[in-house]
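Here is one chain, start to finish.
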Amino acid sequence: MLVAFSVTPLGVGENVGELVAEAVRVVRESGLPNRTDAMFTTVEGEWDEVMAVVKAATDAVAARAPRVSLVLKADLRPGVTGALDAKVESIERHLAENRD
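Its structure:
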């Protein structure tokens, strides 16, 4: 499965980058395939392992913020691996085909 999630600390002011970095650090240390962009961090793996990482990342932020917002989107496709890269590669391939 792929899970794209965003953890936002609330009640700590406007500069939240340091706290969000703590969540990303948890994801990267998990060893699961992942990618972070300006809006979400996406993690790939089995349900239990991905959800454990999302919880740990959220807990890391909650340890330093009085309130936390969590947005999560999941793509469940049993038996599929490598989707984190394959989906982007598919789009890039289609874009390249349309340029010719």
